[in-house]
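Example: Protein GumN.
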Amino acid sequence: MTRKMGVLLIGFLFSALASFSGVADTDAKPPFFEVTVNGKTTYLLGSVHVGRAQMYPLPSAVEAKLKSAEAIVLEVLIENADLPTLMQNYGMGKPQLPDDVAQKRQRFCEDYVRECASIDVLQPWMQASMITMLRFGELGLTPEYGVESYISNRYAQLPRYELESTELQFKMFSSLSAELQLLMLKDALEAQPAELSELLDAWGGGDPAALTELVKAGFGDNPELFEKIIVERNRDMVSALLQLLTSAKQNKLFVVVGAAHLVGPDSMPQMLSEKGAKVVDCFAQTCGVSW
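Written out as structure tokens, the predicted fold is:
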């Protein structure tokens, strides 16, 4: 595995910014947990933010809980965001790129003249995000078929809540050091298609250890990036979820967050367990029938 995986994990698994067959992959086993707190049970699904139509429906165990859910909880509700203002406040800038990075970006943009027309006025993290999404598009992977989009559209009748905000995510990436943003951009420009397939395989492969290793490798020797993008947000989202379980009018909440937030020693399931919640991996053990 190469160091380039870092920005792909960011774009693919984190921000609310494998080869699947031609039929729905109902044998997929994404991160999926049953969480019980103070007698109230919720379900927690790890998502990927881009995908293909062939990924759906989701595994039957997941769809069954979705059909019983009374509300959906996402990382962010993108429709609540003022994207032009967020772009202006956190995404714009005219960075001076090193010659080698500028040349790689120029070569990449030769195939995306229209999309790259204004790329040089974006902060490096935003350039990296845009380039990563274009690379996913080359493989037929689009946000339209991300797990959140699928669930939001299929279960549109359900109320929805958010654990954080789009502004928080923009602000987080914008606050990264120039060095880290440049690293993200370089990773995006140097990414290989095989790495994207590896991510999809890991998401649906039912092997938390493999997904944890991908996350770990993605951040490499950048603990600052891991702490900011994963650990700090996990703490905040766990706090928001626990508050929501108390305040929401609905009892049956189905929660969807990026898969990388649900694996590893600093994951949301681990943090919830440390706060007294009973946490069950629904593909490793038998989840209850509380819903």
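The longest strand covers residues 40-47.
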